[in-house]
Amino acid sequence: MTEGAGSRTRLRAFLDRLxxxxxxxxxxxxxxxxAIILITxxxxxxxxxxxxxxxxxxxxxFLLSRTWDPVSEDYGALPFVFGTTLTSAxxxxxxxxxxxxxxxxxxxxAPPRISDFLTFLIELLAAVPSVIFGLLGIFIxxxxxxxxxxxxxxxxxxFLPVFKGPIYGVxxxxxxxxxxxxxxxxxxxxxxxxxxxxxADQREGALAxxxxxxxxxxxxxxxxxxxxxxxxxxxxxxxxxxETMAVTMVIGNDPKxxxxxxxxxxxxxxxxxxxxxxxxxxxxxNALVELGLVLFLLTxxxxxxxxLLILVTTRRATxxx
Amino acid sequence: MKKPKALVLFYVASVVLLIVGCLGITARIxxxxxxxxxxxxLNAAGATFPYPIYSKWFTEYNRLHPDIQxxxxxxxxxxxIAQLKAGTVDFGAxxxxxxxxxxxxxxxxxxxxxxxLGAIVPTYNVPxxxxxxxxxxxxxxxxxxGKITNWNDPAIAQANKxxxxxxxxxxxxxxxxxxxxTFVWTDYLCKISKEWETKVGKNTSVSWPVGLGxxxxxxxxxxxxxxxxxxxxxxxxxxxxxxxxxxxIQNAAGAFVKAELSSVTAAAxxxxxxxxxxxxxxxxxxxxxxxxxxxxxxxxxxxxxxxDANKAKMIKGFLQWMLNDGQKDAExxxxxxxxxEIVTKELKQISMIQ
Lengths: 321, 354
Prior knowledge:
The complex is a heterodimer of chains A (321) and B (354).
Chain A lengths: L1 H19 L1 H29 L1 H7 L2 H4 L3 E2 L4 E2 L2 H32 L2 H15 L3 H28 L14 H25 L3 H9 L4 H12 L1 H17 L2 H6 L17 H8 L6 H39 L1
Antiparallel strand pairs in A: 1-2
Helix pairs in contact in A: 2-14, 3-14, 5-8, 5-11, 6-8, 7-8, 8-11, 9-10, 11-14, 13-14
Chain B lengths: L4 H24 L11 E7 L4 H14 L3 E6 L3 H10 L4 E4 L5 H5 L5 E16 L8 E2 L1 H9 L8 H4 L13 E5 L4 H13 L1 H6 L12 E3 L1 H11 L3 E6 H6 L6 E3 L5 E2 L3 H11 L23 E9 L5 H22 L9 H11 L4
Parallel strand pairs in B: 1-2, 1-3, 5-9, 6-7, 6-8
Antiparallel strand pairs in B: 3-11, 4-8, 4-11, 9-10
């Protein structure tokens, strides 16, 4: 009898907590959070399983091999890893100064009406589908690079190995430029938000201590917003690493490694998009899935390195503060 | 603070209703296009190259036989083969014949039925040259192997006397996506160049010695148009429909032939006598004076034994119609029709389907 009464009170207590809504909220949000983690695990599991043939055949050699030959069934990831990392790095190299600079202008220096209008336009840009950027790349960026920018670079800086070689237009350089056009709106809109959210007393404090407007912006406001700005850079890096259509239209699709930025290259996402649907034999498909796994790991590693970078610089900054 | 029990019951009831409603709606959505009662729906999938003519045939056939509906999805030759193997489609379509290795992976034996012919043409962008260029097999092989690197090379110039070829670097363009077009082009290169055969081989996707990759016929054409000195390969139909200038290639008999419907059909007629029983043959570089050397069949892949006797009858009926009447529609859409000898042989093969 007492047991029956005990369980009834426990049930009643649970129902009471449910009714209050807190328990429900706790449960639901826990389910959503675990769903994301579950999906990630499933993704890695599927990538792992479906690349089994290729992993057993090539082992670690897959990461170091430069060959990609569907006829003799010899596959290697190095040219694609090279192309993906190089184009993303180039995109960040171009995008970060331009993006952060523009964000600083919009947040700190521009009159509010201009700032709002330009921000609206930039956020529109961020929503444009990537295929459009690919078309922009083929019809505008590549001809411009081929006829004006690349010959100029070759003439002035042609002694550098990165600017040597024949100019085709489609190249790693073009892919880097198109990717930077795609990521700059992200960097601008997020960095601007973060800069605007820096408390006014920080700025006022700096100005009160005798800093000029630029000094207060560059030495006080931007460091305060550093974490947010780096967050926007991570997001852009993630987008650049995975970008498929825009890259395949302008990169030249040639799985070779070269020192020159003017040479065509290939990225992981581009080769998967191009070759997956017609790949019929199991080893070929497994090799492509293994490339997907490599991209996944590459993203994780680059993100981890970037976070490490923040940790180190923040610690150093706060250490000296 | 004590909320009425009815509220909890309301939450539970609404969730249950939502789930039941979703199940009900998904049950109603048909998985495939609805066939009319007493009618047969055949599902097919495969090559994108012949999609326009297949689309016309299936519509035309449905008009003549309203109880037969054929649903074709052009997901690519690879996709067609995979779906036929998985049994999700009744028959498939492929630009390439299946290799012995692929056939052995199938549970049922598969018959190949050539339907129409296609050709691949070389398109180029040489500054200052508006005339039609002629290419010898050695020139094509040399260019694609990366050995011939300039347009004024004697290998190209000797076939184009009277044309002023500038000292322009050659930019080779190929397909970046896996495709039957690449298969036929590399098959031709294997036949005309031992070096290509050993070094590169033939496949829907190969390891190209040199060149830029464009996605699809559009990608290749775009790159060729934009890059001075470029040369690429595209499907004849695509070149014709988009008014892209292309050159001639020297065939096995030594004549320089431009790809036209007649020269493409002649390529199949040239091999009709030596055609293997199962029609799995490459017709590139085939003998004959009026033959264009870079042609291929596109096939319908029909299982030898079809479970549903009704479907088997419908498929046989369609094939017969396609070979006798359907061929008339081919040339209107710029596809080359099958020569008579091949049609006769195929009609005999139809009787093999059970």
